[in-house]
Amino acid sequence: MAHATPSEITPQQVYQQRRDVLRQMAAGAAGVTLSAWTGQEALAQSASVVKRPGKLAALAGARSTVSGAQVADKLTPYEDVSSYNNFYEFGTDKSDPAQAAHTLKPRPWAISIEGEVGKPQKLGLEDLLKLAPMEERIYRLRCVEGWSMVIPWVGYSLSSIIKRAEPNSRAKYVEFVSLADPKQMPGVRSSVLDWPYVEGLRIDEAMHPLTLMAFGLYGEVLPNQNGAPLRLVVPWKYGFKSAKSIVKIRLVEKQPKSSWEKSAASEYGFYSNVNPKVDHPRWSQSSERRIGDGGLFTPRKPTLMFNGYEAQVGQLYAGMDLKKNY
Ligand SMILES: Nc1nc2c(c(=O)[nH]1)N[C@H]1C(S)=C(S)[C@@H](COP(=O)(O)O)O[C@H]1N2
Ligand SMILES: [Mo]
Asked: Cis omega (within 30 of 0) on the bond before 152?
């Protein structure tokens, strides 16, 4: 392909080119097992100046599958997705994670699934990558602070993992625990949150096909700052429900208390469904600023009920008072 100067290439074009390359690789490399991260290599194809973690063969064949879950909006450029982050284990500024998260070691990695299950187990990353077919899902991530991004994630439904452990009838909720290693995560030495980072979902929310375990974005391995090597994406809930760098999944009988609930229960409810009609005490939820889409004067976009997924998830909350259960 002809070379264009970076200013001539939109993130979408770069992304399309990369996808084509990945597809060609996948087609030509039939039978090749999972390769290790290939490091810098991906950079060569791109107009980006951001250092990327690289490709992974397991992500290359990802297909879009979940119908009705694709967001038509313009994709947020990779550079913004990987440089404007909330990951308090690496600091509280949006720019901290991209600068500090190089100390996170996403390999080797394993998660344990425990609690109210018939088959408690530990799953290594290599096994997790093969556990279900990789899918690409374009989801909007809406932070409660009032900004959003549109990100092409790569992963598969969390339900594929949970089913393996055979939850029993007492499993009413699922608790997610992130890594909290002060050697890798300088932020956990501060008491800004109660570590480890804990989040929770009701079992039917966790088993909903839209709930994604993501291993990559833009067809590549997750950057550390986005929650490598695996993180949750619950697209109809505020971003903080989507725990990063998960090491434990616990099936429990009682509603778990999240780190954010512990820090300010009046601001961060258990449900935290995106809802333009229920404001956060400090931030309006009626509209959002799309990161990477113009400057401060670009009009905000209206926020949609359940972040646009009302048709898919609305019935999970039938009859519930969403002002009380915020
Ligand atoms: N472990 C952990 N997970 C986390 C957070 C965090 O601080 N620690 N921040 C949350 C918040 S507030 C948001 S908005 C999203 C941001 O995800 P992104 O940086 O990939 O856009 O991650 C969520 N997951
Ligand atoms: Mo957030």
From this structure: no
Check if 82 has its Cβ closer than 6 Å to any atom of ligand 1.
Answer: no
Q: How far is the CA of 6 from the centre of ligand 1 (A)?
A: 29
pTM of the predicted structure, to 2 decimals: 0.86
Give residue-wise pLDDT tens across range 13-38. 555 655 544 444 333 332 222 233 33
Identity of the amino acid at 310: E
Ligand nearest to the CA of 242: 1
CB 240 less than 6 A from any atom of ligand 1? yes
Whole-number Å distance, alpha carbon 244 to ligand 1 midpoint, is 6
Q: Which of 8, 143, 141, 140 is nearest to 73 (CA)?
A: 140
Long-range CB pairs of 191-196 (<8 Å, 24+ gap) are: 192/88, 192/92, 192/263, 193/88, 193/259, 193/260, 193/262, 193/263, 194/259, 194/262, 194/263, 195/89, 195/259, 196/247, 196/259
The protein residue whose alpha carbon is closest to atom 20 in ligand 1 is: 226
319: how many CB neighbours lie within 10 A of its CB? 5
Cα–Cα distance between 161 and 155 in angstroms, integer?
11
292: helix, coil or strand? coil
Q: In the prediction, which pLDDT does 293 show? A: 87
Domains of the chain are 6-317 (3.90.420.10)
* Residues 148-184 pLDDT 10s: 999 999 999 999 999 999 999 999 999 999 999 999 9
Query: How many angstroms separate the most distant Cα atoms in the chain?
Result: 59
State the amino acid at position 76 in one-letter form: T
Weakly modelled stretches of the chain, pLDDT under 70: 1-50, 64-69
